[in-house]
Amino acid sequence: MSQGRVSVNATTTPDTPQERRAATLVMACVGVFVAYLPVTTVSVSLPAIQRALNASTSQLSWVSDAFVLPMAALILTAGVFGEAHGRKKVYQAGLALSGLGALVALCAPTVQVLWIGQALAGLGSAALLPTTLALISHAVPDPRERGKFIGLWATALSAALALGPVLAGLVLEHAAWRWIYLYVVPASLLAMAFAAKLLTDSRAPGARRLDWPGQITAALTITALVYGIIEGGAGSFTDAKVLVALCVAAVSAVGFVLAELRSTDPMLDLTLFRSPAFTATTLIAMISFLGLIGFFFTLSLYFGLVQRLSTLDAAWRLLIVTAVPLLLGAPVGRLVHRVSPRLLIPGGLLVTTAALLTLTGIDADTSFASLSWRLALLGLGMAFVITPMTATAVSAVPFRQAGMAAAGNNAFRQVGGALGPAVLGALLSTEAVGALPGHLTDAGLGAQAVGQVTAVAESGGIGAVGAVDLGADTPRMLAALSESFLDGLQLCLLVAAALTLLAAVVGAALLRGPSAPPRTTAGGPGQARPSEAEATAPARV
């Protein structure tokens, strides 16, 4: 039997190392595709969801965060559970939860039920993300060769982000918003069926136990922090419930650190942070995704509220951002161990920063052509961050801790992703609502109309203003609404640019020289595997 093909024996299970590795890579890519498909599918559909369910800006933030929060809070636990009880089992459970969450969201009659569906899908993604990377790390233990496989994994991630808006746009052209979730159900079921045949189960060497004190304190920290920021932005940061939430987050964060330091089997071994490369990539993941995911949240609202685009038209614009990393994922993966991450990652972040700054010049009448080059530049910067960041984090620690490093990097990335819509959504709402009365007055509306519209914005968020009917004054009100939103959007873009610039500075300060290039042995090119000593030593980054 030739290598590189999956055998077609009675069980259709790969029976050679090369075939098992190929099957593992395919299923890992399918898993991360299913995990990330809801991210941009839902993001581009937020205006339609807001109109259909009469959701406020705060409730709309929770539609995104209901997915990201459980992903961020439980991703480390899922990684440990896979190492202790079998990665294939956790992979299958992740697919099942993703499909169940999509089914609940598909049938959701209210925004609260939609949150439940999103949360279940987030749990599924929490199981899939660390497991898919751990499966690759187990199948390809040589850190010099692993980069190109992680590049393909990142390409699958980018493919999900790229296809999500287009699929949502096609659905919303012909059906209600809820049908955007239909794709995930058969995709999850088919992936489960193939994984049962193709995947070989694996687990970490030695016994691992769930770290309940660490898990509970981590979940409390993340949930309380995001809740406090969302509610503070929707109301006031001096409200009692907001202050209590932020205090709980601070105390829980201290508790998490103490629990991990005392644990004999920590969920996240804090000694990993002795590696400057791991520390750098973790901070970069959290800071950059806070800015970028928050930016996508506000950009989708810009397309709906300001430019009044259909979901499909908005999808084509978002596709530009995600298509570039999709096209460049594999080539960048091959560069990871040939070009210093100190050049790749901060360089990509600087390009991203520049792209965000150019976007501050957009307005209600910005054309597709004028917007497209800015979005393509943003995608180019992201392409040189996602793959090198993940590969460097995994290769910067001992081989036996690669799964934990992957889960840790993804956890901090999702914490940033959860905070993004919360932080930038709060900034957008506060700035836009504050600027609205002035723009309404400048548009020539009377004091009574200004008071009426401002009251709607303060109670229901800036998005609720679009439903107000002022008769002949409605066009002027909508123009003032657009100007107010653009004030908030420009502030968000400046904050996102500052965050990516900060991430670039962190990378330049902590990342070191080039990684060692792939070696060849008597086994032929690309077949090098580390010796036992090499496998337990950190890769040079």
From TrEMBL:
Per the record, the domain of life is Bacteria
Give the residues annotated as coiled coil.
none
Q: Which GO terms describe its cellular component?
A: plasma membrane
Q: Name the keywords, alphabetized.
A: Antibiotic resistance, Membrane, Transmembrane, Transmembrane helix, Transport
- List the InterPro entries: MFS, MFS_dom, MFS_trans_sf
Task: List, in alphabetical order, the GO biological process terms annotated in this UniProt record.
Answer: response to antibiotic
Domain named Major facilitator superfamily (MFS) profile is located at: 24-515
Stretches for region Disordered:
514-541
Q: Which SUPFAM superfamilies match?
A: MFS general substrate transporter (SSF103473)
Task: Write out the GO MF terms.
Answer: transmembrane transporter activity
Q: Does the keyword Nucleotide-binding apply?
A: no
Membrane topology qualifier: Multi-pass membrane protein
The answer to keyword Transport applying to this record is yes
Q: Which CDD domains match?
A: MFS_MMR_MDR_like
Where does it reside? Cell membrane
Membrane spanning stretches: 21-39, 59-81, 93-115, 152-172, 178-200, 212-230, 242-261, 282-303, 315-336, 343-362, 374-399, 488-511
Name under which the protein is recorded: MFS transporter
Q: Which organism is it from?
A: Streptomyces griseoviridis
